């Protein structure tokens, strides 16, 4: 598949604070290892990153804990794209951590977040981070953690703040401390709909970007299997001559102009398909069929 005519700008734009991004971005989680756990092809993924930027992708989502035995997503991004284009927005996340063997550590304490921010800065070769998401796990209140990041923003290490894996209450707690430019939660056409549709709508009302992860893979399919795509997804894909994954991305973007997509890949052809999905326009009838397949018709508005 060629990239002729495929540009990320076709997806429209949104602002993260004072930073304008195309709604189709790129998620770096898949860069470091192949599906079997072996190290990714370094030259190949560097080429994918560079081509993503050539296609107009200007929002890359990453984290210091995205690494395998021989690859670090942040350092691959640094190698591929530094010196960075002026309009490129790098979004990272802190809270979780892994030891050198890859084992997960307990959620960082508030006073440990500065070290995680500085690790991202070092790996990316930056003097500040454009957007940092606090990814929480099991906290009733994120106030202390988010407050620590707000202090780092005031110190100039961070430009804008977001939150991840959160509830509406967490958003309210954070907004009482500092502006929140984005929420990252798992969400897809057939995944986490009952839990997230109202939250997606609320974010739109508040002017906060909603950035779904696992929007393509969804529950039980994080390795990339597409074997359980619904008949409705397959029918819409066939009608447009596109892949089910592209339909999933398009459906996500149709949930509102504030919804951003960050599909990730190591495959050059899949990169082009992902970016092209930003221009796929689904009719109201197609959106209804996709929602009806999961019994969720009318839960959220369609973006124009």
Account of the protein in words:
The chain is α/β, with parallel strands linked by helices and 304 residues long. The chain is built from ten helices and nine strands. Helix 4 links the parallel strand 6 and strand 7 (158-164). The two termini are 28 Å apart. Residues 219-225 and 295-304 have low confidence and may be disordered.
Concise account of the structure shown:
The protein has 304 residues and is α/β, with parallel strands linked by helices. The protein contains 10 helices and 9 strands. Strand 4 (59-61), helix 2 (73-81) and strand 5 (89-94) form a beta-alpha-beta unit.
Distance between the termini: 28 Å
Overall pLDDT metric: 91
Helicity range of the residues? 25-40%
Radius of gyration: 18 Å
Q: Order of strands side by side in the largest beta sheet?
A: 3-4-5-6-7-8-9
Number of strands: 9
Helical/strand content category: alpha/beta
Along the chain, the helix and strand elements come as EEEHEHEHEHEHEHEHHHH
Form type: globular
Strand content: 5-15%
> Biggest β-sheet: count, sense, barrel?
7 strands, parallel
What is the number of helices? Answer: 10
Unreliable residue stretches = 219-225, 295-304
Quaternary form: single chain
Compile the SSE list and pairings.
Blueprint: E1 13-16, E2 19-22, E3 26-27, H1 42-54, E4 59-61, H2 73-81, E5 89-94, H3 113-124, E6 129-135, H4 143-154, E7 158-164, H5 168-175, E8 182-186, H6 193-206, E9 209-213, H7 231-240, H8 244-253, H9 268-276, H10 284-292
Parallel strand pairs: 3-4, 4-5, 5-6, 6-7, 7-8, 8-9
Antiparallel strand pairs: 1-2
Helix pairs in contact: 1-2, 1-9, 7-8
């Amino acid at each position: 598949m060629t990239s002729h005519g495929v540009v990320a700008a076709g997806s429209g734009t949104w602002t993260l604070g004072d930073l304008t991004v195309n709604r189709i971005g790129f998620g770096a989680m898949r860069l470091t290892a192949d599906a079997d756990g072996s190290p990714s092809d370094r030259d190949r993924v560097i080429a994918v990153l560079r081509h993503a930027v050539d296609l107009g992708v200007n929002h890359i989502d990453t984290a210091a804990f995205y690494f395998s035995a021989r690859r670090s997503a942040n350092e691959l991004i640094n190698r591929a794209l530094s010196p960075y284009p002026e309009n490129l927005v790098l979004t990272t996340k802190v809270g979780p951590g892994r030891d050198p063997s890859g084992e997960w550590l307990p959620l960082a304490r508030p006073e440990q977040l500065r070290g995680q921010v500085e690790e991202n800065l070092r790996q990316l070769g930056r003097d500040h981070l454009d957007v940092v998401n606090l990814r929480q796990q099991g906290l009733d209140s994120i106030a202390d953690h988010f407050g620590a990041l707000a202090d780092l923003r005031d110190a100039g290490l961070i430009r804008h703040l977001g939150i991840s894996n959160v509830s509406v209450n967490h958003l309210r707690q954070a907004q009482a401390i500092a502006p929140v430019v984005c929420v990252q939660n798992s969400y897809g056409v057939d995944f986490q709909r009952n839990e997230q549709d109202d939250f997606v709508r609320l974010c739109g009302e508040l002017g906060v970007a909603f950035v779904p992860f696992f929007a393509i893979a969804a529950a039980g399919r994080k390795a990339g299997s597409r074997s359980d795509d619904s008949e409705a997804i397959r029918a819409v894909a066939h009608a447009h001559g596109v892949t089910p994954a592209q339909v999933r991305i398009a459906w996500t973007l149709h949930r509102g102009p504030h919804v951003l997509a960050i599909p990730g890949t190591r495959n050059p052809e899949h990169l082009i398909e992902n970016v092209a999905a930003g221009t796929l326009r689904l009719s109201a009838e197609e959106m209804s069929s996709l929602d009806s397949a999961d019994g969720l018709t009318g839960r959220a508005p369609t973006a124009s």
